[in-house]
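your task:
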Amino acid sequence: MILGVMVMIALIIIMSIVSQRRFEKSKDKPVKGDELPIWPFEPMPIMTDTEVLFFAKLQQAVPEYHIFGQVQLSRIIQPSDAAEGDRSFWLNRICRQSVDYVLVARDAQTTLLAIELDDWTHDSASRSKADEKKDKALASAGIPILRFHAERMPSADIIRHDIKAVLRKYGSG
């Protein structure tokens, strides 16, 4: 009986030591690329040529606001308290989505409007579905979205008119 208990204790100790060694080895295991002195990245433009042109018109149209380009949804909206234990689920719903431009009040913290510059790529069924999801997420957070079409590039005056109309409608302007 005593021998059996001693064997059992010895097995537990051995298993514990083996488990600890495996854990230590696994946490020290390098991730692919960690050994490289330089990673294979290069800079890329933040906007397309058309988006840069529209950005300049936006700046001209509404100089009284801050304008940020290519903003991740997760930087301007977050799950509400109603999400309770599902915060990760709701963040994953908007993961990797962005808006082309964000109009922000002078306090640099209040998002007033999301602006999208749609081109022919928004005609596909999958892109339309992604746009609907983005629109729903923003509307749920109380942030209006205004869409312009790249093929019908509006003037700065039309952009200002449309932005001011939306801001008045939502009580932000």
The helical segments are 2-28, 49-61, 87-94, 125-140, 156-169. Residues 36 and 65 are 43 Å apart (CA to CA).
